[in-house]
Amino acid sequence: MYIIRSGTIRAYKNIDDEEVTVRFGYSGDVIVAIDSFLTEQRTSLNLQAIKKAEVEYIQKYKFLAFFTKDLESLKAWNEILSELILQQLEREIDLLIESPLGRYNRVLSRSPKLFQEIPAKYIASYLRMTPETLSRLGKI
Amino acid sequence: MYIIRSGTIRAYKNIDDEEVTVRFGYSGDVIVAIDSFLTEQRTSLNLQAIKKAEVEYIQKYKFLAFFTKDLESLKAWNEILSELILQQLEREIDLLIESPLGRYNRVLSRSPKLFQEIPAKYIASYLRMTPETLSRLGKI
DNA sequence: CAATAATCTTGATTTGAATCAATGTTTTTC
DNA sequence: GAAAAACATTGATTCAAATCAAGATTATTG
């Protein structure tokens, strides 16, 4: 589990011979290959710095030692997991919107500051469209 | 939180003037408007029986009373949330696949028994394609 | 069981995003 | 700061899925 101290990280997955972006992490965020973190299996996600980044990391056993030490801590861990579920639900809805413009608008309105400083090609892949399509959306 | 004793339930959301299916629940499954369950806000999801169904329900306060009573229970609740996150991650990947056939195959191979007895129109909406497209996939 | 409604399939057509291709712009590197 | 590489924009074309439109099946209802 990484705490981003500066820079920007993206998580992506190889799908259809493409590197499809599934998450962005900014300074102050936590980013983690959640599948691996939860299952201790090899992850199918890749993490890449897209701005020179500094991160700290916590090893899972230390994290868990902290978050399972008493009832209150466990509830906090629980709260984090719940929050994650809600985020993923929003993400699912994002992806279900049919039109590229619709997806773009929804993601933008949900996280206005989200796409600052991120190269458009990664945003496009996050929004499941080509860079060309994303570029053309500006003109509408 | 509903425990399905018989029948089939789908969860759907209104997107783009369509009822887009986001989850199916079968006999034995638990189905819940997870956003509402976690936030206690009004849900944006609808639950609908697509086969005559019998369900039991647990109210959240009872559920939590059980799952927060001691450390072990909380860990179990935690485990459930983790499992949900992994499922949602799979779902996200499903939706990121570009071709209708690709999405169909991935979902089918992940849950072969998934689509038995479910009207194709709901499956199509779950796979973000039209019923016509789904129907034509069979011919490939 | 007949009648009606719902669903599914098939075909023809349209449409909008992907692809292809070229140029322009910004960023990186030496 | 020049050269190269990466990225973004724009235009033309292709293509695959959506839409539109009938039929064919299947399921539901009285």
Description:
- 2 copies of one chain form a homodimer.
- The mean pLDDT of chain A is 92.
- The relative contact order of chain A is 0.15.
- Helix content of chain A is 46%, strand content 26%.
- By secondary structure, the first copy, chain A, is of the alpha+beta class.
- Chain A has helices spanning 34-39, 60-67, 71-96, 100-110, 120-126, 131-137, and strands at residues 2-15, 18-25, 30-31, 46-57.
- In chain A, helix 3 runs antiparallel to helix 4 (100-110) and helix 5 (120-126) packs across helix 6 (131-137).
- The structure holds a DNA duplex (30 and 30 nucleotides).
Quick structural overview:
The structure is a homodimer of 140-residue chains. Chain A has 140 residues and is an alpha+beta fold.
Helix content of chain A: 40-55%
Average residue-wise pLDDT of chain A: 92
Q: How is the main sheet of chain A built?
A: 4 strands, antiparallel
How many strand units of chain A?
4
Beta-strand residue fraction of chain A: 25-35%
Distance between the termini of chain A: 40 Å
The unreliable regions of chain A are none
Q: What is the ordering of alpha helices and beta strands of chain A?
A: EEEHEHHHHH
What is the molecular shape of chain A? globular
**Assembly of the depicted chains:** homodimer
Radius of gyration of chain A in whole Å, from Cα? 16 Å
